[in-house]
Write a structure and sequence with these properties.
Blueprint (H helix, E strand, L loop, with lengths): L6 H20 L10 E8 L5 E11 L2 E8 L2 E13 L2 E5 L7 E8 L2 E9 L5 E7 L6 E7 L4
Antiparallel strand pairs: 1-2, 1-9, 2-3, 3-4, 4-5, 4-6, 6-7, 7-8, 8-9
């Protein structure tokens, strides 16, 4: 006996497939995933002030060393990475497939965290939170081509 599917069931299946494809398209992707390198930085602080500078990311064994230069001062931090694996975000030791960074840092005696994800245009975008600010601010890193 042949099975006939109800039109609503077929429509639901198509909608589910379409949503899955849209979600997959939203996952950051880049052929060169390793975040090590130099970047120009643009951001907005918690008080709404725009800032710029540079940041360097260097892999040291299982962590990343992160150094920002903003307004003539250096901010140092360490990071772990993360990548998508089997549909889930896995965070842990530095790896060449890392698509995100979770960075702990100290800025003028205040601790902070920055979490950034690699975007399709090879920038890293995310948020920064500093002790005492009460809210997160945005930051974008754009790769500086190697000379």
């Amino acid at each position: 006996m042949s099975e006939t599917r109800h039109p609503k069931a077929i429509l639901k299946a198509w909608r589910t497939a379409a949503v899955a494809l849209i979600c997959m398209a939203c996952i950051p992707f880049s052929a060169a995933a390793d975040p090590s390198g130099a970047y120009s930085v643009q951001g907005t602080s918690a008080d709404g002030q725009r800032y710029s500078g540079t940041v360097s990311v260097t892999r040291v064994d299982e962590i990343y060393r992160v150094i920002w230069l903003r307004n003539g001062r250096e901010i140092q931090g360490i990071a772990i990475g993360g990548a998508f694996s089997e549909g889930s975000l896995t965070v842990g030791p530095a790896h060449s497939s890392d698509l995100m960074l979770s960075i702990g840092f100290s800025d003028q005696g205040r601790i902070g965290n920055a979490t950034l994800f690699l975007q399709r245009n090879d920038t890293f975008e995310g948020y920064v939170a500093r002790e005492g600010d009460g809210k997160a601010s945005q930051e974008v890193w754009t790769p500086i081509p190697a000379q």
